[in-house]
Amino acid sequence: MEEEVRKRPTRRVRRKPKVRWGRVILALVILIVLVGGIGFGLWRGYQAAVSYFGGSATTETTTTADVAPPSEPNQVSTIPLEQKSLDKPIYILLVGKDSNNPAQGDALFLLSVNEQQKNIDVIGIPSNTKIYSRDNKSVSMINTMYSSGNIELTKAVVEDLFHIPIPYYVVVDEAAFKDTLDVLGSQDMYVEKEMVHIDDATDTADVNLARGYQTLDADKAYQYVRFVDADKNAFSRTQRQERFLKQLLSSQEDTFTISRMWHVWRLWSHYDSNISTTDAVKLVMSLGSLTGNNIQYYILPGTREVLNGEIFWTYDPVEAQQLLGITLGNAPIEGGGDGTTDDSKNTSAGNAKEG
Question: What angle do the packed helices 234-250 and 218-226 form, to 10 degrees?
Answer without folding.
Answer: 150
